[in-house]
Write a structure and sequence with these properties.
The chain is built from eleven helices and 34 strands. By secondary structure, it is an alpha+beta fold. It is globular, with a radius of gyration of 25 Å. 52% of the residues are buried.
Length: 681
């Protein structure tokens, strides 16, 4: 278990290779090869990212790619156009240009003398996205994909929007992070004397990514492009979709299994936004060995048995005491031969005025068919939500939900008579009316333990102007009754006997959802029109005989000296007199470190604050300050950005500032001031 230093084939590393494109652009690649690959060619595995192969990701990459190379693959890390040491400008996420470049990269790899002509794509997050997107272009060289922590739907399941709500938690912070990343220079040690001209061109020509994201507030062609859910049939390459319940992208896995027409597998563990061999919460698995089973089958025609196993393997979590971090989530592995599974039943629980009633429960004598319940949440509802896309850091996970439940309208079941195991997408259907034309609802499903603690199981958001269609939102008619369904995030979770289920509904969920422009009172009609639909999976004997995963292992990472490391933190401050609340997230992003062997020094910091005042939804604001330093010997650069987002009743307002330094001299400055009409938000 752990670091592995010996492999079937010895490996050499090419720190930089230039991949020429037809338009004259060069993409920078780092390649790990078996020493004898020219004499005995191997398949190639491509990871294609904007995250700087030569410094920021160098240590992470060295844990994975030499491992693949040592088992007979050419492992290749390529910086996207306009990032790291590559030429050009990156104009947005997931562009057609990015895909076109990837097609040329795949053709170049397949033509190399050390390659058999067969290529796979591998990646987490951005690399998981573009693996699917490139597969939809059907390049002949691409024989298989491993896509981790990625989405098939750029609008509904990414950092921008959830249920038609602006994801305040991540939209501006991610835009600020990309602004900072893309303002960093290439490394002079790789690109030579032209590094400074490239640096200034990037800062001058790279746009603010938040601009298209807030320009397109509904699900239009901008978001459909690159969303493979638009036509799963375009993907013919075999796909292994992998993620964790704690991650923000796990919903795509069951959708891909249901939609893809070709060979596919799914794996969902308890993990956050991290690789399964080292992600938290555990248990971790031998993920790289699992990758090899997939690659050997599809790229080497080896009989590994990987396709003889069930289509989906998932971790069904047992409850834990709520906390801001979890090293391990206890539970057990289960498997489904196909998805959707015919062996999962839907259990309907009605939401009545006196609580949640199990399937088949008869109404009380003389009880009205329904009761209208009014609710208005404070603007600070959502403060205990945790992160949308945790990476396992302290404070990332939702804490005890009792306080959130008190800020919400809740429906709680009697204690369960027997254990219930959920696997899939729960849904909550509600008969509602609102007193404003724009409103949102947040719906949480919680497990209430006998001691009263409330563990968040899963949740969903819905902008009620998007109740029928994310492409054509329509304002609410105040007082009019509507029936809406909120699909909650997919989950595998066990609720023990003696515990209670709770559905909690709130009219705000800050800082996840940008608040509606006016305080909203929601009327929920408790009774036959409001219900919880649970996907219930009964335990099976076959669950007990699933083959165990191997123990985690990886190649020895390149060395680094850590010069400073501040712990990542998420804190909450409240002004009890004025009603203001601020959630502050400090992300150390690796700290101040120096890579071994004459590598550069890096120092990255990020501080995000989310502020709101109870009773005033227009007080909501997000501020992100980033700082990134790259240095080596007498080369020293620093980039600082400050991003701010607020809203009026009619507009979103965003500002960015960028300052760049050589040593301590400011050499570049730029400011963006942007305004966007609110479109049903």
């Amino acid at each position: 278990m752990g670091v592995r230093t010996e492999f079937p084939r010895s490996v050499r590393r090419i720190d930089n290779a230039w991949i020429p494109l037809a338009d004259g652009t060069r993409l920078a690649a780092r390649i790990w090869l078996p020493d004898d690959a020219e004499a005995d060619p191997v398949p190639a595995i491509l990871e294609y990212l904007p995250y700087r192969k030569g410094d920021a990701m160098a240590r992470r990459d060295s844990r994975h790619h030499p491992y693949f190379a040592g088992h007979g693959y050419a492992a290749v890390r390529v910086d996207l156009r306009g990032t790291g040491d590559s030429d050009g400008i990156l104009l947005d996420e997931y562009t057609r240009q990015e895909e076109d470049d990837a097609l040329e990269v795949l053709a170049w790899l397949a033509a190399q003398p050390w390659c058999t002509g067969r290529v796979g794509m591998f990646g987490i997050s951005w690399g998981g996205f573009n693996g699917l997107q490139v597969a939809a272009r059907r390049p002949p060289e691409l024989q298989a994909v491993i896509s981790m922590c990625a989405s098939d739907d750029r609008y509904s399941d990414d950092v921008h929007y959830i249920g038609g709500c602006v994801l305040a938690l991540d939209m501006l912070p991610w835009a600020a992070t990309m602004l900072t990343l893309l303002a960093q220079p290439p490394d002079p040690a790789t690109v030579g004397a032209g590094w400074r001209a490239t640096w200034f061109a990037r800062m001058e020509r790279t746009p603010a990514f938040v601009e298209p994201w807030l320009t397109h507030q509904r699900r239009d062609d901008y978001w459909r492009d690159g969303s493979v859910c638009e036509d799963y049939a375009r993907i013919r390459a075999p796909v292994y979709a992998i993620g964790g319940w704690a991650d923000g992208y796990s919903n795509a896995i069951p959708r891909l299994l249901a939609g893809l027409p070709g060979p596919r597998k799914g794996l969902v563990g308890p993990w956050s936004h991290a690789f399964p061999q080292d992600g938290e919460p555990g248990p971790a698995i031998g993920f790289l060995q699992e990758c090899l089973r997939w690659w050997d089958h599809w790229l080497k025609d080896a009989d590994t048995g990987v396709m003889d196993e069930p289509m989906l393997r998932a971790w069904v979590q047992d409850p834990v005491r709520p906390a801001g971090s979890h090293a391990v989530r206890p539970g057990r592995w289960v498997a489904e031969e196909r998805w959707p599974s015919p062996e999962i039943d839907v259990s309907e629980w009605s939401l009545a005025a006196d609580g949640m009633r199990p399937p088949g429960a008869a109404p009380r004598a003389g009880e009205p068919a329904e009761e209208a319940i009014q609710h208005h949440s404070p603007e600070t509802a959502g403060q205990d939500a945790g992160a949308w896309c945790p990476d396992g850091g302290a404070g990332d996970f939702p804490v005890d939900q009792r306080s959130e439940d008190g800020r919400s309208l809740t429906f709680t079941s009697p204690p369960l008579e027997e254990r219930v195991e959920i696997l899939g997408f729960p849904e909550v259907t509600l008969a509602v009316a609102a007193d404003r034309p724009r409103a949102l609802i947040a719906v949480r499903l919680c497990d209430v333990a006998p001691d009263g603690s409330s563990l968040l199981v899963t949740r969903g958001l819905l902008n009620l102007t998007h109740r029928d269609d994310h492409a054509e939102p329509a304002p609410l008619q105040p007082g009019r009754r509507y029936t809406v369904t909120v699909r909650l995030d997919a989950i595998g979770q066990a609720i023990p006997a003696g515990h209670r289920l709770r559905v909690a509904i709130s009219t705000s969920y800050w800082p996840w959802a940008w608040p509606s422009p006016e305080p909203v009172t929601l009327t929920v009609y408790a009774g036959a029109g409001s219900r919880l639909s649970l996907p219930v999976r009964a335990p099976r004997d076959s669950d007990d005989v699933l083959a165990p995963f191997a123990e985690p292992e990886w190649s020895e990472p390149i060395g680094q000296d850590v010069l400073r490391s501040d712990p990542t933190s998420r804190t909450l401050g409240r002004d009890l007199a004025g009603g203001a609340q601020e959630v502050r997230f400090r992300w150390d992003v690796g700290g101040h470190r120096r890579l071994a062997g004459g590598g550069p020094e890096l120092d990255d910091r990020n501080c995000t604050s989310y502020r709101i005042v109870d009773g005033d939804p227009l007080s909501a604001s997000v501020r992100v300050r980033c700082e990134s330093t790259l240095a080596r010997d007498d080369w020293h650069t620093r980039v600082e950005t400050d991003s701010h987002m607020t809203a009026t009743a009619t507009e979103f307002l965003v500002s960015h500032t960028l300052d760049a330094y050589e040593h301590d001299e400011r050499v570049y400055a730029r400011t963006w001031t942007l305004r966007f009409p609110r479109d049903g938000v």
